[in-house]
Write a structure and sequence with these properties.
six-stranded antiparallel beta sheet, elongated
Length: 723
């Protein structure tokens, strides 16, 4: 019945998760459909456009022909004049349409200036990147000479370019150009939307292990989407935001790496802080150097590609180091590295980005819509990351949503007044609920070992002798696992053979017991390891879920052990003298009341000589040492369980011997021990052989004998207050 209830509860959790996931996927699909629709619809009128190519016929002042679509001031020594003749047929609404890149120029028609363009320097230097132009023409300009007086905006007169020169209707030109940019632009918007969706998932999915990774990935996707959308030139065409676009380019290209590095850092299992610090330092140094080169050295950012290449290469090296180190860590600890979709998405992104880099380096460059393959790769990467997060969330929900299990175990924890009963009930319930072979608790003995104090075995578990579960050594085993406990709060062993490198002693124990899988958690009080809480051989598909349960319940199990210890301590303190550790008067009374069998025994009353004088002359610490020396002498001879402190300087001891001679020998021994320690005491000792004597009668006889010795010690003084 228990297994059936467990199965039904699991199916209900899966059903609830499925409904939630459907809504999340619906949002993602809706966004992608919207992007696809945007690709097919232009915001401009769809009209038949007649394009007049105007790239031919351009000459320099010396008469040299120039292909204006590939014109670059670098090849002409800087400032250049270009001439051509306007078409014979110009209609109202026609314009000279073209794209400029980092060029300043003036346009003349028959010597009269028609248009001038010269962007002022901005935060990123003199360059402005790319700009779309539509210079209005009128019919009376037909057949006239048009000239470009063009130069680069840079001090070295390089990289001033013109592209795609045509004469056509201005409105139609913008519509045609916008339509050509819609695909890369909408892919970029898709990346931006994925970033927003990921940030939304960060808010609605309570996945504790991915809070930081979701935030970092979402921010990275938003920055990347904005950067890619701006890079297409679509916004510059439709909104004429040239300067803002340039600034956006440089801001994004320098900050998008940091959240990507932090995302990779957050998805690794072993999170070394040195990597997080390195990521922050790398971005910080990049920004500082950029500002230094720009504003102190006066370098143009457009000519600082080497700076970005070094920055990106170092970032790639850091990512590789984190992933390699994570792979080694997971292999050494017998854990799965996980995040399969992450590595698939990263591979797709790497390949697509490599293709674009090769295209760029080969010289096959387009002035707009660059990085087409990288855009698709990035969109695929972020989609896979969103799916990876959803998968991880569903996986965690299997554990975290196990409210019934947790509540039931908490019920066991508080339902009994006896902590030991609660602990045993929790172990049994946990084992049966997860179908494990063995649940157990080991406790720190503070002698270098951890002792198996509690355990439960399933009916189907292989039979093992009690001796199989010997104490676990701290040195070489527990101490080596402590760092894992402090970092991960648990140890998950999916395959016992993988523990050979992690800890040979652990591997040997698991091999001897025939354990294949294990989930183990620490029991801690103020970061002090007081025990271990573990389960052997749970179902393979529930090991991680079980580890989460152990992590959640370890606090309550720890509190039960603390409560049990406190209960034991209360009993012990109520029956124990706090100074000497021997029994007190109450313990002696309980012993005499509960004593079941009678046989001859020795009864000793002991009164310390000179305690008051020691307290008055040497202080109470010296008096306490005197009391403890006397107590230790008594326990060394009569045994710790047979000595009781009745008051300040009085003790009672029982001696269970077979003869009076043995008892007298023990008395001689205890007196010699006290003498060796420099202690003095008066004794009232008698060997009781008469069963009819009551405890009071025995005490009276012993008290009289003790006072005789006391009087002899004080030369006849019988004032107990003077001792």
């Amino acid at each position: 019945m228990t297994r059936r209830n467990s199965y039904e509860g699991k199916m209900r959790n899966i059903a609830r998760n499925y409904l939630r996931i459907k809504y999340i996927f619906a949002v993602i699909i809706a966004v992608l459909i919207a992007c696809a629709m945007m690709m097919t619809v232009s915001i401009f009128d769809r009209e038949r456009v007649v394009v007049s190519d105007y790239s031919g016929g351009w000459v320099t002042r010396t008469g040299s022909l120039v292909d204006i679509n590939s014109f670059d001031t670098t090849e002409h020594g800087g400032k250049t004049e270009l001439f051509n003749t306007l078409p014979d047929n110009i209609n109202y609404g026609d314009a000279l349409c073209f794209i400029s890149q980092n060029a300043k120029f003036k346009i003349y028609v028959d010597g009269e200036m028609l248009y001038e363009y010269d962007q002022a320097p901005n935060l990123t230097g003199n360059g402005y990147g790319m700009a779309y132009h539509t210079v209005t023409l009128c019919p009376d300009m037909a057949g006239k000479v048009i000239s470009f007086d063009i130069d680069s905006v840079f001090y070295n007169h390089e990289r001033g370019r013109l592209k795609r020169v045509s004469v056509e209707n201005a409105h139609a030109y913008r519509a045609r150009s916008a339509k050509g940019l819609l695909l890369p632009y909408n892919v970029s918007i898709g990346v931006l939307c994925m970033g927003i969706i990921i940030l939304f998932l960060r808010l609605i999915l309570p996945y504790k292990n991915s809070q930081a990774s979701l935030l970092a990935l979402g921010i990275n996707a938003v920055i990347t989407g904005v950067w890619m959308a701006n890079d297409t030139g679509y916004l510059r065409l439709t909104m004429d935001v040239v300067r803002l676009g340039r600034i956006t380019d440089y801001v994004c290209m320098h900050i998008w790496i940091l959240p990507l590095l932090l995302f990779v850092y957050s998805v690794t299992r072993e999170r070394r802080k040195i990597y997080m610090i390195s990521a922050c330092l790398l971005t910080g140094v990049d920004i500082v150097l950029f500002l230094l080169f720009r504003y102190v050295c006066g370098f143009e950012p457009a000519f600082m590609e080497w700076h970005l290449i070094i920055y990106y290469l170092l970032a790639v090296v850091l990512i590789v180091l984190m992933l390699v180190n994570d792979a080694k860590y997971c292999k050494a600890n017998g854990q799965s590295q996980g995040h399969r979709l992450f590595f698939i998405g990263l591979s797709v992104l790497t390949v697509s980005a490599t293709v674009d880099i090769l295209i760029y380096l080969s010289g096959v460059r387009s002035i707009s819509g660059r990085g087409g393959f990288a855009r698709i790769g990035l969109l695929a990467f972020y989609v896979m990351m969103a799916l990876d997060v959803i998968y991880a969330w569903m996986k965690e929900q299997t554990a975290v949503k196990s409210d019934r299990i947790i509540n039931r175990m908490l019920h066991f924890a508080v339902s009994s007044n006896d902590p030991e009963v609660s602990i045993r009930a929790i172990l049994e319930y946990l084992g049966r609920e997860f179908g494990a072979d063995h649940t157990y608790i080991y406790e720190n003995r503070y002698d270098g070992t951890f002792h198996n104090t509690y355990g439960w075995f399933s009916e189907d578990a292989p039979e093992r002798a009690d001796t199989d579960y010997y104490d676990l050594p701290y040195e070489g085993l527990i101490d080596k696992l402590f760092d894992v406990f402090m970092r991960d709060h648990r140890l998950i062993v999916d395959d016992s053979e993988a523990t050979l490198k992690l800890n040979p002693i652990l591997h040997s124990i698991l091999h001897r017991l025939g354990v294949k899988r294990m989930a183990l958690g620490p029991l801690q009080v103020n970061n002090e390891l007081i025990g271990l809480f573990g389960v052997d051989d749970p179902p393979a598909d529930r090991t991680d879920e079980l580890a989460d349960i152990i992590w959640l319940m370890s606090y309550f199990v720890t509190q039960l052990i603390v409560q049990r210890n406190e209960k034991r301590d209360l009993v012990r303190y109520s029956l124990t003298d706090s100074l000497t550790g021997v029994g007190n008067r109450r313990a002696m009374v309980e012993y005499e009341v509960n004593r079941s069998e009678w046989k001859p025994y020795g009864y000793v009353m002991c009164d310390i000589n000179g305690l008051k004088k020691t307290n008055d002359t040497q202080g109470h610490e010296a008096g306490d040492r005197l009391i403890m020396d006397v107590a230790h002498s008594l326990t060394d001879v009569f045994g710790e369980d047979n000595v009781y402190r009745m008051g300040g300087d009085e003790f009672v001891a029982y001696a269970f011997t077979d003869s009076r001679e043995q008892f007298e020998s023990m008395m001689s021994h205890v007196k010699s021990l006290m003498e060796a320690k420099g202690c003095s005491a008066s004794f009232g000792a008698l060997y009781v052989t008469d069963k009819s004597l009551s405890a009071n009668e025995i005490r009276e006889q012993a008290d009289k004998l003790m006072y005789r010795e006391k009087e002899a010690y004080y030369n006849g003084a019988n004032d107990r207050r003077s001792r």
